[in-house]
Amino acid sequence: MNGKTAKRWPQRLAGALCLLAVTLPAAADDDHTLTVGVTENDAAPSMIFSYSPQPQLDGGLWKDLLDSIAHQLGQRVQYLPLARKRMDSYLQGGQIDMVCNTNPAWWEAPERFHWSLPLSEQVERFVSPLTLHERITSLSQLNGRRIGTVIGYHYPALAHAFAHGAQRIDQQQGNLQLRAAASGVVDVAVVDELSFAWWLKNNLREAHQVQLQPLVLSRMPLSCALSRRSHLAPASLNHAIRTLQQQGVLAARLKPYQVP
Q1: 123 near 243, Cβ under 8 Å?
Q2: Which end of the chain is more exposed for a tag (fewer CB within 10 A), N or C?
Q3: What separation in angstroms does the CA of 201 have from each of 44, 92, 208, 214, 257?
Q4: CA torsion angle for 74, 75, 76, 82 (degrees, to 10)?
């Protein structure tokens, strides 16, 4: 090493370390694995499951988002399939760190958990059989009708309709609601635009038997409920989300699933 090199290498080392600090994801505070509760009630493409024979999360929008967040946090992530009714107790007990693709309004006591920044938006609409010639533009038109819903889901905006003769017809998943609409089992089915667009692409025959109604039931930001017993600090989670938003990573993950 000559004299000039000896003088310059500390500066070069410092520059290299600064570059690493910018390009590498944040290091985890410890070696914990981030455990995320997921439910089969969430229809594709939000979450895509395989069965061998037990359910396993294999893909979907939220897996893509959460894999990116875990990488940014420098942590491993595992997905635990659960019945929706068990999510609350698992979050409170700390058996899982968080549940995503959700909104505080859907929980009885959302203040028991920390809440992340929103990552996407859910737009709920109505789908009906082609045999229903009426255009649904008002919630009052749902009184007395059979409404396809997802078991375990809360629909506050439909409380008036259910109090005035509307019948709730529960299905396990949103795609089953769409089949119920196509076959005329229900008069209308509540669907989110993302799942409906995905279903149309993959069910061409049944797609010609339903129509999307103009009435929008709700627009809800979707985020993550974080257990207060989690090793992950809310500030760390939100910092990771902001970083990925600024880098354009989250937008890139969302793009393949968005409605054209």
Answers
A1: no
A2: C
A3: 12, 38, 11, 20, 12
A4: -140
Per-residue DSSP letter, 112: G
Q: Is the pLDDT of residue 13 over 60?
A: no
Identify the CATH class of 23-120+221-257.
Answer: alpha beta
User: pLDDT value at position 207?
Assistant: 87
Binned at pLDDT 50, 70 and 90, residue 260 comes out as: low
Whether 30 has a pLDDT exceeding 90, the answer reads: no
In the numeric block, the tokens 């008002």 are attached to 138
Q: What mean pLDDT do residues 86-111 have? A: 96
Three-state secondary structure call for residue 93: helix
The conformation of residue 107, written as its DSSP 8-state character, comes to: S
Q: Which CATH number fits domain 122-220: 3.40.980.10, 3.40.50.1980, 3.40.190.10, 3.40.50.2000?
A: 3.40.190.10
Note the pLDDT tens digit of each residue in 192-224.
999 898 888 888 888 899 999 999 999 999 999
Tokens 């995503």 -> residue: 100
User: 23-120+221-257 with 122-220: one CATH topology?
Assistant: yes
Model pTM above 0.85: no
> What pLDDT, on a 0 to 100 scale, did the predictor assign at position 31?
58
- Distances, alpha carbon 47 to alpha carbons 59, 66, 78, 194, in Å: 6, 11, 14, 11
The mean pLDDT of the chain is 87
85 half-sphere exposure, CB direction, 13 A CA radius: 4
Full DSSP string of 203-251: -HHHHTTEEEEEEEEEEEEEEEEE-TT-SS-HHHHHHHHHHHHHHTHHH
